[in-house]
From TrEMBL:
Listed InterPro entries: EGF_extracell (IPR013111), EGF_integrin_1 (IPR040622), EGF_integrin_2 (IPR057073), Integrin_beta_N (IPR033760), Integrin_bsu (IPR015812), Integrin_bsu_cyt_dom (IPR014836), Integrin_bsu_tail (IPR012896), Integrin_bsu_tail_dom_sf (IPR036349)
PROSITE patterns documented for this protein: I_EGF_1, I_EGF_2
Location of the Integrin beta subunit cytoplasmic domain: 655-701
The protein, known as: Integrin beta
TM stretches of this protein: 632-654
Gene source species: Crocodylus porosus
A single GO cellular-component term on record: ruffle membrane
Entries under PANTHER family matching the protein: INTEGRIN BETA SUBUNIT, INTEGRIN BETA-1
Domain (Integrin beta subunit VWA): residue spans on this chain: 3-379
The entry's keywords: Calcium, Cell adhesion, Cell junction, Cell membrane, Cell projection, Disulfide bond, EGF-like domain, Glycoprotein, Integrin, Magnesium, Membrane, Metal-binding, Myogenesis, Phosphoprotein, Receptor, Repeat, Signal, Transmembrane, Transmembrane helix
Amino acid sequence: AKSCGECIQAGPNCGWCKKTDFLQEGEPTSARCDDLAALKSKGCPPDDIENPRGSQAIQPQQLVLKLRTGEPQTFSLKFKRAEDYPIDLYYLMDLSYSMKDDLENVKSLGTALMTEMEKITSDFRIGFGSFVEKTVMPYISTTPAKLRNPCTGDQNCTTPFSYRNVLNLTSEGNRFNELVGAQQISGNLDSPEGGFDAIMQVAVCGKQIGWRNVTRLLVFSTDAGFHFAGDGKLGGIVLPNDGRCHLENNLYAMSHYYDYPSIAHLVQKLSENNIQTIFAVTEEFQAVYKSLSSEVILENSKLPKGVTINYKSYCKNGVNGTGENGRKCSNISIGDEVKFEISVTANECPKKGQNETIKIKPLGFTEEVEINLQFICECQCQNEGEANSPDCHEGNGTFECGACRCNEGRIGRLCECSTDEVNSEDMDAYCRRENSTEICSNNGECICGQCVCKKRENTNEVYSGKYCECDNFNCDRSNGLICGGNGICKCRVCECYPNYTGSACDCSLDTSTCMASNGQICNGRGTCECGTCNCTDPKFQGPTCEMCQTCLGVCAEHKDCVQCKAFRKGEKKETCSQECSYFNMTLPDPLSHCKEKDVDDCWFYFTYSVNSNNEPIVHVVDTPECPTGPDIIPIVAGVVAGIVLIGLALLLIWKLLMIIHDRREFAKFEKEKMNAKWDTGENPIYKSAVTTVVNPKYEGK
């Protein structure tokens, strides 16, 4: 941002510092533009920060909004349906043959509508029209007989037509009832009807219909679907609907020439003429026409480029809507009041900065709110600028908002250079440090012999200095923070806050953290450096040099005196008052660093230290830890139980060994039995009583 105006257009949280000496050496003019908190932290007084805000001025039926880029202006609009409000209602009836069975219902509907509307308002007018279809093939039969009577059999039907305005808007209710009751069915060939042609003519033929500048209602009654743009090709009709009035003798004369209108075209014309449409259809086609119906209550005129508008509605019974639903409220009765919250935002300034006007009105009503939009594209201080100021190098610019806005052909912070001199090598020499070849330390550009330091992505990080050699982000760090969070980085050197020192401001000069419990710094046995004790006595340690857990000599040295003074026992019990009066004793001891045994084998704890007057002080735990005697019953029970368990274990082992031995013997027996060579069926010691002798000489003869 080279000027205050460009700055405030960058975003709603941007401000411009107009303090003359705000910039550091080497900083560009754009450094004057920053977040409001950042400008204050850099030392810009609040009174020198330009930060214009949007505003509102309310007048009857008119609102003036001053818009700053990115900052929405929100206002409330209330709507209340007035009693006895003038209304024009036009009743458009389908007279195609498919309506034959519904004709009586449609006739009675028109009469009932008029009766009910007269209860709502006394200033009521009603009109009537009818439609069938385009008078060309294939929508109707064009034979002479069918043109005279399109119905079959003995039925007497009226000649087909596209749209007829039967009755202009009038307050004569009886006339309306007569004409509605006298209507006859006509005929066509296809099911969809030409109702869109009729709606278009009703919308654009305001003079012929007799519309007043009041609430306008159109009741569209049919039992079939509709033809729309493109369907005319079936009848050789290719010219798009022109959206103009073509009524001749109250008949639509160009239905054979122009195609059906599109849905979007109809919506546009109905909106332009402020007409609300009510679809009275049979249940079969309710879903088809429901998609065309809209409950939009508020609408606005065309918005200027870069301007957006958002609606939020607060309707009856606690129903709220946002987005597109924020434009509408349903079921509003006479006397009901609903509220709309409207936000208007400018996302950019118009090129010429001229004012714009938009209008908001409830659809179907003539009342409207006019909103005049005024854009804040410049700062107030720019009106106080001094043209051709001597502060801008011999009048080569306008001094405004603390900076120079250069005339055409001049550049530089003070407009001291012409554009022809920018690339001169002589100028670059002024941007080099002594004995250096780098222009602006490679951290900026040389413009008109002066370094303009470049910006970093992080706006809190800044290059500065005559040669852009300084910055505020390359100082020493501690704990991940620049200057430890305890100082400011200036030209790569930390400037520490009070009570801090060191290259990274990480050394605290506060000695409270080094104070020992005896009131001495580091217990008199060390030095406090950067808030931490550096113990010079090797026997002591800890944050305040009070801990001496390894100082066995100290503990043993004072053991007997502590024992006699605290517990009245020990070797020095009899001479305690003479030998142990050199220190003061305190009970109990919060920090116990010495652990010693007394004559009863009990442990006692104490701490030995020196106060600020170098007087020894001993802190003692008042209850020693004495060993307790053994508990006999558990020991005896444990021994007995152990013996029993060992005996049982031995018996089990002996039994196991015997089982193994028996099994081995039995297996050995079985093996020997299998290896026996005699017949197991005879007794081996049995001898027979019969002896057989054979004569060797006997030959059997």
